Amino acid sequence: MNTKTKGSFKGLIPFLVFIGFYLGSGIILDSMGVELAFYQLPAPVAIFPGIIVAFLLFKGSIKEKFETFLEGCGHQDIITMCIIYLLAGGFAIVSKSMGGVDSTVNLGLTYVPSHYIAPGLFVIAGFISTATGTSVGSIVSLAPIAVGLAEKSGVSMPLVLAALMGGAMFGDNLSIISDTTIAATRTQGVEMKDKFRVNIKIAAPAAILTLLLLIVFGKPEIAPETGVYAFNIVKVLPYIFVLTLSLIGINVFVVLTAGIVLSGAIGLFYGDFTWLGYAKEIYNGFTGMTEIFLLSLLTGGLASLVTKAGGVDWIMSTIEKRIKGVKSAQMGMALLVTLTDMAVANNTVAIIINGPIAKKISDRYGVDPKKSASVLDIFSCIAQGAIPYGAQMLIMLSFAGGKVSPFDIIPLLWYQMILAVFTIGYIFYNPKES
C-alpha cells in the first residue's frame, strides 16, 4: 500500500552526519598538513555514524529499522550497480596489467605534433579516461609526462595541467565504465548508451571549443624534440572494443565480461601474466572496487531509512518552492550534486547521495531520466575537476613538485567552465520544456 510520507528535516540528519564526518575529517587533516587529507577517512566508515544516528533517531523497533535498511541495501538498482563496479574494476586492472594503458598513452604521444602539446594532452587524457573509466588513472599516467613537456617546451605549466585535467574529466563524465556513469544511470533507471547520447551532445561541443582555445593559446615558445614511444596497437584494442560494444547497445554485463576476456587473452598471448596471474588480476580489480561497493550498499540502506523518515520528502518540498517546471528542476539537481561534491570531494559519492532525490524530482516534474542522469554526472565532474582539494587536483600537483598551485590552474580550467555554460544552455534551450 502506498502512503505519502510526511516531510521532515529530522529525517535528513543522518545524511548530514555522514557528510559532516566525511568533510570534517578532511578539513582537520588538511589543517595538519596531511597529504590527500579528504581521502584518509574511508567513505564506508564515515557513513557508519550516520547509520547509527538513523537507528537511534528514527521511530520504530530495531527490527523494523533493520528491515528497512536491508531493503535499501538489497535494492535491485544497488546490487546491479555493485556488480557493474566489480566487472569494471576487473576490466580496468586486467587491461592495465597487460600493458593497455601504457600502449594507449604512448600511441597518443607518438602521433601528437610537438607544437600541439596542450590540446594533444587534452585529447589523450580524454581517450584514456573514457576507455579506462577513471580520471585519476588518466592523470597518474600522464601528469609526469605533462610536467616534463611543459618544462621543455616553454608552454605554461598551469595551462598544460589544466588541459590534462579537462581531458581527464571529459572522459570520466562520458565513460561507460566510470563510477559516475554507473551511479548516475542506475539511480535514474536509464541505459548507459542513452545517457551517453544525451551527454555527448553537450560534452563534444564543449571539448571542441576547449581544443580551439588550447590550440590558439597553448603554442610552445620552443618546440621540443618529437619522441617515439613504444606501444602495441593490439593492447589498445580492448578499450576500443568495450567502447564500441557499449555505444551499439550491448548489455553492460556482456560488454565488461567480454572486455575482461579479450584483455586476458592478449595478456596471456604476450606473456604478461599466467593463467593464475590473470585470475589474480581480475580479483585485484574486484578488491579495488571494495570501497565504492561497500559505500553503495550502505548508502542504499541509509537512503531507505532517510526516505521512510521523510528526509527526502523534506528536500523535495524545500526544492519545490523554487522549482517552476522541468528546467528549474534540472537546475535544482545540478545545484544539489555540485554542493554535495564540494562537501565530500568525491563525484561518485555525490551522485549516490543525490541520485534518489534526483529520481523523485525527475518523476514529479517530468524530467527525462536520461537528462537527469547527464545533469548529475556532468555537474559532479565539473565540481570534482575544479575543487583544489579533490584527488585529481592533488595527485596532479604532486607531480609538479610545488611549482604550481591549484589557484594557478583553476582560472584555466576552460573545459569545465565551457561545459557548465553549455549544459545550462542545453537545459534552458528546449522550448518544449518549461
Keyword list:
434 residues, mainly alpha, 21 helices, 74% helix, transport, Na+/H+ antiporter NhaC-like C-terminal domain-containing protein, cell membrane, Na/H_Antiport_NhaC-like_C
Structural commentary:
This protein has 434 residues and is mainly alpha-helical. The protein has one domain (18-429). Helices cover 74% and strands 0% of the residues. It is built from 21 helices and no strands. It has helices spanning 13-31, 43-57, 62-73, 76-97, 100-111, 117-132, 135-153, 157-174, 179-188, 192-217, 237-247, 252-269, 275-288, 290-308, 311-320, 326-344, 347-365, 369-384, 391-398, 406-409, 414-429. Helix 2 (43-57) packs parallel to helix 14, helix 4 packs antiparallel against helix 14 (290-308) and helix 16 (326-344) packs parallel to helix 18. It is globular, with a radius of gyration of 22 Å.
Number of structurally distinct domains: 1
Radius of gyration: 22 Å
- Give the N-terminus to C-terminus distance in angstroms: 33 Å
How much of the residues is beta strand, in percent? under 5%
Number of strands: 0
Number of separate helices? 21
Shape: globular
Mean pLDDT: 83
Q: Biggest sheet, open or closed, and with what strands and sense?
A: none
Coarse structural class:
mainly alpha
The proportion of residues forming helix, as a percent range, comes to over 70%
**Which regions contain 5 or more consecutive residues with pLDDT less than 50?**
1-5
Order of helices and strands: HHHHHHHHHHHHHHHHHHHHH
